[in-house]
Write a structure and sequence with these properties.
Blueprint: H1 11-22, H2 25-37, H3 41-69, H4 73-80, H5 85-120, H6 124-127, H7 132-137, H8 141-158, H9 160-188, H10 193-201, H11 210-223, H12 230-236, H13 244-273, H14 286-300, H15 302-344, H16 348-367, H17 374-377, E1 380-382, E2 385-387, H18 389-417, H19 419-427, H20 437-447, H21 449-467
Antiparallel strand pairs: 1-2
Helix pairs in contact: 1-9, 1-12, 1-13, 1-15, 2-11, 2-13, 3-11, 3-12, 3-13, 3-18, 3-20, 4-5, 5-8, 5-15, 5-16, 5-18, 8-9, 8-15, 8-16, 9-13, 9-15, 10-13, 14-15, 15-16, 18-19, 18-21
The structure holds tryptophan.
Tryptophan binds near residues 21, 222, 328 and 331.
């Protein structure tokens, strides 16, 4: 354990950085649409219950693994399991997963930056053209945006935990909250906004089935940055005597509140654009929504507030999503970075340079997988669908492996670390946690039904995605 491990400067710093990691594109677009399609308020309720009763204990487990071991996930798994072979493999997965997520998230962040840039250049009307996105992702300007995004992310990371990650979150997160609230207030003044709010909030329990429950739980789990090693890594930078359970609750609450507010932005906007909309037709993919559907809605605002006004609203929106993406990208890149620093004893600068080059290489492969290079565009075929290199990374590392990683954290706590040690880590800095209801609940749930539920999600996803077999929904 190195005495000079970098640390967040304050409890708030940890909370904002962790919430910044958790709040991403999924919260701002994926969540509202999933809720609207799947029973509105009924979905919101189930989602909130999953956050509290299933995800929060996992988050507490991950943060405490990090804080206790003072290591990145790869080394933390090794340390807690005393170098047991199976856990070395798990540790490797905990390095590869965030690396691959960093690769594809870089690509999406580049697109966001490009859309922000184009909007600010007065090109909103082009963005609203349905064929624009396809040509945009294959245009050469992508490489310019790639360099800009990488410069921002690595500038933050080079500056370190306190002066980079924490400071970045302290600037971007409050700005994100303000922009979100401003946009919510604005869209609520639009015609038919209320129809959207009603659709989003009024519960329709008849839509709830096993498939919807699975969606809600997966969405909650992914949204909170679980299974990615981020909470372990950020936990390792948390001050030893800060209140860990309280901070975890705050992060979970912030992430959920942002997702909820995003619904109050997206749904009224969609309904004011088309009051007759059939939400079943809305794309399931956040990418499709952000880059092809929403620009049309923003452009339609020109009737009431003019082209300049419409562009301003669109620019604020893209900046909001861009900030959300940057803080997530920073967090996911810091995981392999801290693993490399720990394993090789490299300086932050050296380790980040290696990462910058390797993430760049794979990001370019992704960029070439939308038609530029055939081998990457039609990379694999499974579940009856052709998949690009980019799709495969998302399928494997984002949609499949995260519940498995979460499960591994639970198993590590149960079998190696031992529950009493786990609870004493949680009690440091939070005397009220000892003997509390939450402590008893976390203990019971993590050792019984949470590992079972995570296994079921994992098995179901593998069966469905790769073999076309569906057990649930
Ligand atoms: N909540 C994020 C999203 O909505 C998911 C996420 C959490 C994420 N942590 C991340 C994505 C880190 C990329 C990197 O998109």
């Amino acid at each position: 354990m190195s005495a000079d491990r970098e640390q967040f400067g304050s409890r708030l710093g940890f909370i904002l950085a962790a919430a910044g990691s958790a709040v991403g594109i999924g919260n701002l677009v994926g969540f509202p649409v999933a809720a609207a399609k799947n029973g509105g308020g009924a979905f919101l309720l189930i989602y909130a219950l999953f956050v509290v009763f299933i995800c929060l204990p996992v988050m507490m487990a991950e943060i405490s693994i990090g804080r206790h071991t003072q290591q990145a996930p790869m080394q933390a798994f090794n340390k807690l399991s005393d170098g047991h072979k199976g856990w070395t493999a798990a540790g490797f997965l905990a390095l590869l997963t965030p690396f691959m997520i960093a690769v594809f998230y870089t690509v999406i962040t580049i697109w966001l930056f490009g859309y922000l840039f184009e909007t600010l250049s007065g090109n909103l009307s082009q963005l609203a053209d349905p064929s624009y996105f396809g040509s945009f992702i294959n245009s050469n300007s992508i490489f310019g945006y790639l360099i800009a995004v990488k410069a921002i992310v690595y500038f933050i990371l080079f500056s370190g935990v306190k002066d980079g990650i924490e400071k970045g979150a302290k600037i971007m997160m409050p700005a994100l909250f303000v922009m979100l609230i401003m946009l919510v207030i604005f869209v609520l003044t639009l015609d038919n906004a209320f129809a959207g709010v009603t659709y989003y909030i009024v519960p329709d329990f008849s839509k709830i089935d096993a498939g919807v429950i699975n969606t809600a739980l997966s969405q909650a789990f992914f949204s909170l940055s679980l299974g990615m090693g981020i909470m372990i890594t950020y936990g390792s930078y948390m001050r030893r005597d800060d209140d860990l359970p309280g901070s975890a609750k705050f992060v979970a609450f912030t992430d959920t509140a942002v997702a909820f507010c995003a619904g109050l932005l997206i749904m009224p906007a969609i309904f004011s654009f088309n009051p007759e909309i059939n939400t079943a037709e809305l794309s399931d993919s956040s990418v499709g929504l952000i880059f092809t559907f929403l620009p049309k809605i923003f452009l339609a605002l020109q009737v009431s507030i003019g082209y300049f006004g419409a562009s301003a609203v669109a620019a604020i929106f893209f900046l909001l999503v861009f900030f959300a993406a940057i803080t997530s990208l920073v967090s996911i890149t810091e995981v392999p970075n801290s693993a490399i620093m720990g394993a090789m004893n490299y300086s932050r600068r050296k380790s980040l340079s290696i990462l910058a080059v390797s993430v760049l290489f794979f990001s370019i492969l992704c960029i070439y997988s939308f038609g530029r290079a055939d081998a990457l565009t039609n990379f694999l075929n499974y579940g009856g669908v052709d998949k690009s290199f980019f799709d495969v990374i998302i399928d494997v590392f984002y949609d499949t492996v995260l519940p498995l990683n979460g499960l591994l954290s639970c198993l590590l706590v149960i079998f190696h670390w031992k529950r009493s040690n786990f609870h004493s880590e949680l009690e440091r800095g939070s005397p009220a946690y000892r003997g509390s209801f939450l402590e008893r609940y976390v203990d019971l749930s993590l050792t019984t039904f949470i590992p079972i539920i995570l296994s079921v999600i994992f098995i179901n996803t593998v069966a469905y995605k790769y073999f076309g077999v569906s057990f649930i929904g």
